[in-house]
Description:
The protein is α/β, with parallel strands linked by helices and 393 residues long. It folds into two domains: 9-256, 3-Layer(aba) Sandwich (Aspartate Aminotransferase, domain 2), CATH 3.40.640.10; 259-390, Aspartate Aminotransferase, domain 1, CATH 3.90.1150. It has helices spanning 9-15, 41-49, 63-76, 87-98, 113-122, 138-144, 167-176, 189-192, 226-239, 245-256, 258-277, 296-302, 318-326, 357-363, 379-390, and strands at 80-84, 104-108, 129-133, 149-155, 180-184, 202-206, 220-224, 282-286, 309-314, 332-333, 343-345, 369-373. Strand 5 (180-184), helix 8 (189-192) and strand 6 form a beta-alpha-beta unit. Keywords: Amino-acid biosynthesis, Methionine biosynthesis, Pyridoxal phosphate, Transferase. Homotetramer.
Amino acid sequence: MSDGDKLQAQTLAVRAGQVRSQFNEHAEALYLTSSFVFENAAQAAARFSGDEAGNVYSRFTNPTVSVFQERLAALEGAEACVATASGMSAILSLVMALCSKGDHIVASSGVFGATQQLLGGIMPRFGIDSSFVGQSELAEWAAAIRPETKLLFVETPSNPLTAIADIAALAELAHAHGALLVVDNCFCTPILQQPLMLGADLVVHSATKYLDGQGRVLGGAVVGPKALVDEVYKFLRTAGPSLSPFNAWVLQKGLETLAIRMQAQSAGALELARWLEAQPRVERVYYPGLPSHPQHELAMRQQRSGGAVVSFEVCGGRSEAWTVVDHCRLLSITANLGDVKTTLTHPATTTHGRLSAEQRAAAGIGEGLLRVAVGLEAVVDLQNDLARGLALI
């Protein structure tokens, strides 16, 4: 194929970034090595200085990791990608690379619990302050911006309430104030949403989730323009929150089936969400693909489907929610998501359990809330499994 060919996402997920070795292997090779050998002292010096391209040390250069980075960049329509050890290390690396003492971040109050703790609890110790605002309230974002604001950070859809932010509007707002917009694209992946095409400056991923797709390994990534990604790469080269070659190889395999999985799991999630809306012991369902979702129209403009995560509130509180959880025999009770196996969690006591009661209230995380990340099982089996507990509350 020529450089001018514009390939579809399904093709990029299978073919982008592959480089074959002298053995001309069909599957991507796995390079399990800590370091690389140089031909002579001059080449070693040139590689370390960056004057000559090539692999040096697997903390910051590895062929297997490079294939994953190039493939994910291609899927997001980006110039560059740097892979990290986890999704949280991707966010940490981005903030440490692009922010300094005295800088300010505006973030959604609906970001993942660990992200809230990182931005609101840890980064202030290094002189980087954060303000948290309503996910979909553009006026709140605008009011929170200061002269020293460096980043606007949003996760859309949010975890676990699937609130939607207007990426294009936030990008315009950020750029008007000389700031950058960072979008956590974990829930949608580039198959369902491409934030860079909507004006975002950088995208972060927890590759642990849908990019892997089978709950096998941890990984993260920062994707965007080369100039910005290079700054994150410089931090990673020194600080070392790197993606291992083995994990990168597993994630490559995950990307190959990403498109078909996201399409199938999203279809299952929509079917389950419709069923949950009809259940008498369910107070509310949160799913962007439903017309009842407050940002349904916006979601359908900037996403290709509603995604694969459905959250819902049961009648009652923690006791009733735990009854549903404890009577499931099929759904996996675990905090991870993005797996082909459907997972179920009670956010208030797990993923968001370390937040204060006030922080959970601001994020809308109630005691009766449950999150289902729909996998590839038959939806009727998921319905029957949830119905067992729902019938007892």
